[in-house]
Amino acid sequence: MVTGKPSSVAVLGGGPFGQALAQAIVRAGNRVVVWTRGGWIAPEGVQQTHDLQRVAGCELIFVAVPSERTADCIPQLGQHLTGEHLMVHVSRGLLGSDLKTVTEVIREHSPSKRVGVLAGPLVADALRKGAPAGAVVGSRFPEVSRAVREAIGGPKLQLHSTEDVIGAEVAAAAVGVVTVMAGLVSGLGLGHAALAVLCTRGIVESSQVGVARGGEHNTFMGLAGLGDLISAITARDRPELSLGHALSDGTSVHEAAREAGTHIEGTQLAAHIAAYAKRRGIPHTITEGVAQVVSNHRPAREVVHQLLAQS
Amino acid sequence: MGHKIAHWTGTQLWYALESVHGEKGNATAMGKLAHLRSWVGRARERPLRLPHFVPKRSKPGDPAIFGFNADRDAIVHEVIRRVCQQYDGDPRAMEQAINDAAFHETRRLASQKDLETKNQLGFWSTSLRRLGRLPLEQQNRLLMRIVDRFARDVAGNFDTRVYRVAARMTPRIVKGIMKPRTIPEMLLGGDPTVVRVEGATDLLRSLSRTSSLIYVPTHSSNLDSIVLAHALLTASLPPVIYGAGKNLFTNPLISFFMHNLGAYRVDRRIRAQLYKEVLKTYATVTIERGYHSLFFPGGTRSRSGAVEQHLKLGLLGAAVEAHTRNMVNGRPKPLWFVPTTINYALVLEAETLIEDHLKARGKARYIIDDDEFSQAGRWLAFLRKVVNLSGACVVRFGHPVDAFGNRADGDGRSISPQGVEVDPASYLKNDGQLTYDPDRNKAYTHELGELIASEYKHNTVVMFSQLVAHVMFRHLVAQTPELDLFMRLRHRGEVAMPKQQLISEVAEAARRLDRLEAQGAIRVSYRVRHKTAEDIVGDAMAAFDGYHTHRMARRVEQDIVLTHPPLLYFYQNRLHHVAEALAHGTRVEAAARETARATGW
User: Fold this and answer.
1) What pLDDT digit, counting tens, does each position of B375-404 carry?
2) Distance from C-alpha of A33 to C-alpha of B7, rounded to nearest angstrom
3) Which of A220, B56, B305, B356 has its CA 20 to 30 A from that of B326?
4) What is the CB neighbour count within 10 angstroms for residue A300?
5) Nearest by CB to A82, which of B422, B440, B447?
6) Do the Cβ atoms of A83 and B447 come within 8 Å?
């Protein structure tokens, strides 16, 4: 990407976050193409398309589809891609019991190698409005971070970069699980101390899983982990938080998910992470707790009180 | 000292004159004589090369290495030029580099008590002493002299006549060198397959005609270089330029062949930064010029016996850089990396290696000087044991990949993981333009390293000795749940396994290995695939007794007593990434998981 020259960026996926990304790209002075199934009223400067060829016409492509859809979309898109493309995903999901990440899916199902993840406390709302925010780009390729900065960067958006891609991806997913726990705790009315204890333990546990997966501990203590978690809890509008709230009084997960509204990355995620951790002898009490509540195995009150009682 | 100058060797005289007069020493009559004598002295130290009485005739289609002789001086000059050029305009860095080289060499040579020391210490200690007072131009010249010295020490030589002779003789040479009396017997007699070669040999043969190949094998033993040279010859693959440890050149006959087959000498004792730069530049330049090459990304022999997983990225990075530079400069000769595994039923230096590992827990801190490899008697004992074991060593060539991790197809095209053809140049483009980006190359190198490490696992060939050692060690772990690794390794002769149980567990493990092979997770040797568990155990017991100093297991009536756990641990480490799968669902699953975790590199 050449600085200053408006270039064409593609966004795969027209959900709320994809739309917000598109708006941020336009605000930064670039052209954008959004690949989406549903129709939406695209704002000025945003082009919609159903044609993957047009997406492939852009050098930088943001992948903003839910993680479980990547297994379909990426191979299709991959047919049109070469080694030239820079692919950055914004998913907070991991796939399967091996905790496969979306960059791994991209590398497996397309020729693209210059991949990255955009993680951290960056929510659709802030992106859309251009409100002060920060995020981290996880990529081994500095040019990917630069490209993201040029695509969506603005005076109020603080973009950091890390080479620890896997760590950033696992952290992003883990924050979702810990946020569910936060929802359970506040739904049960257990107060700030309980919230602090379980969230902190949740992040620490997750970092051990991240390290086992090939990431670095520090990444979990940065924007991708802790930063995102603080945003999730204080903003009170994350779907995982609402899910936790709903589950705390016994609602089934399907009901709760419907109540929460938008797509929640993998209600199975907690179970997968817990299984992964168990296989490797890594402590996973918080994650296991969430998994048990989500699967309706045990009531939320019992699980959370037990977690708080442990020393 | 005056009249004794006449008694000095030419070399000593040359150095003395150099230090006193600088290069002007050559101009005087004494200087010229000294120069002549020193030439003789240096020629004596140099590897022997056959004189050329007949002009070389390179046929079209001959591997590039046949023209290497003519190219060699150009390569050495290019290496010297590049390394020195780095210091242009940076006098402080230059002074530091010279100081670093002189310091390290002085220290190294001062602690060695051999002929090399006498000849070289003077040069280095003088350089070190005088460096501070030298004006810039003379520092520059000193830098060139040092780099020249290093570069020529490293440089190899290839002689087509020797290659053709070696191609016919090597299997016998490998054995015959060690048993000189039997050379006639070897030349006349049959030749059991000590080294088996498998893998993508057909593809490599066809690729080698139009592409450069870089073999990146695992490293278990100092015999690897010889075994690889033999494997390449057996598979009719063209010769390669590769760096072999200097200790491989102590035997004059091996040295002769190694040097004349494209091996260059790597002296791992030399810590000087300039030397390392010379090595890397040498590898880079030869790759750029389209020669096939080979190096060990692990950097050193596996101390634990496990397949290396944390690769050094220095030479790999140099190769990626050379290749990308070629592509950006419009010389897009394809280049393929070939992950290769060398699999031994018995490892020559196993005892020293595992001891070092256990002492240092995986950190290769120092070069092992005095191990089995440096003791001639051990070579003979080892090879005598091993030559009677057909398939004692399996070299497996994995599927070639480009610098960006895409596999090669039969036509030399890069194929993406999806199975679609992709243009390698696209990985170097920004906005449609080919650009050279060192950060990007670093990232590609890192990923290539991870890919090779993964391919090592998939291309590991499980040998009968490793399989049996694994089952035995797992049993030891299962019998001693309260102990940690180090305590277990001290349980020598205290744990036994009923023979029938050993056989049935080996049979089960072999069955599971077959399934894992079908999934592409690992490979299995011919013997493990085709022999009964009873035979496999019998073969292993024979192998475990009679080569290593310590006997690994002993039969006592119906039991097998595990007499030397460290070696069992060493050999079974090769299976650590499938250990859990081999025991999944059985009563030894927990023990297997522990063996997998206990392995360290």
Assistant:
1) 666 666 666 666 666 668 899 999 999 999
2) 84
3) B56
4) 26
5) B422
6) no
Q: Is A114 on the interface with B (CB under 8 A)?
A: yes
Read off the pLDDT band of A311 (50, 70, 90).
Answer: low
Yes or no, beta carbons of B427 and A114 under 8 Å apart: yes
What percentage of residues in chain B have a pLDDT greater than 90? 41
- Per-residue pLDDT band for A127 (boundaries 50, 70, 90) equals confident
Average pLDDT, chain B: 80
Please state, in angstroms and rounded to a whole number, the distance separating the CA atoms of residues B408 and B243.
25
B474 contact partners, CB below 8 Å, separation of at least 6? B505, B572, B579, B583, B588, B591, B592, B595
Task: Look up residue A27 and give its amino acid.
Answer: R
Within a 10 A sphere around the Cβ of A76, how many other Cβ atoms? 11
Task: Report the residue from B404, B418, B446 with minimal CB separation from A110.
Answer: B418
For an interface test with B, give the residue of A140, A163, A166 to mutate (most B CBs within 10 A). Answer: A140
Q: Is the pLDDT of residue B364 over 60?
A: no
Chain B nearest-CA residue for A107: B417
Partner-chain contact A84 B427, CB within 8 Å: yes
Q: Which stretches of B387-498 are DSSP H helices?
A: 438-458, 464-479, 485-489
Model pLDDT for residues B305-341, shown as the tens digit of each residue: 999 999 999 889 989 998 998 888 887 789 999 999 9
Chain B contacts of A111, Cβ < 8 Å? 406, 416-418, 420, 422, 426
Residue type, B320: V
Q: Are A13 and A22 in contact (CB under 8 A)?
A: no
CA distances from B295 to B190, B355, B434 (A): 32, 25, 28
DSSP string, B156-221: --B-HHHHHHHHHHHHHHHHHTT-GGGHHHHHHS----SEEEEESHHHHHHHHTTSEEEEEE----
Q: Which residue of B has its CA nearest to A77?
A: B418
B422: nearest CB among A7, A107, A111: A111
Q: What is the pTM of this model?
A: 0.84
DSSP B411: T
Beta-bridge mates of residue A308 = none
d(CA B83, CA B283): 12
A-interface mutation test, from B404, B418, B444, most A Cβ less than 10 A away: B418
Whether pLDDT at A172 is above 80 = yes
Contact: A140, B422; criterion CB under 8 Å: no
Asked whether the predicted pLDDT for residue A49 surpasses 70, the reply is yes
Residue A175: its pLDDT value, please? 95
Per residue in B438-481, pLDDT (tens digit) is: 999 999 999 999 999 999 999 999 999 999 999 999 999 999 98
Q: How far is CA A122 from CA A66, A135, A165, B281, B544, in A?
A: 16, 6, 17, 45, 61
The C-alpha of A115 sits at a distance from chain B's nearest C-alpha, in angstroms, of 11
Q: Which amino acid is at B508?
A: E
Whether chain A has a CB inside 8 Å of the CB on B116: the answer is no
* Closest residue in B to A80 (Cα–Cα): B420
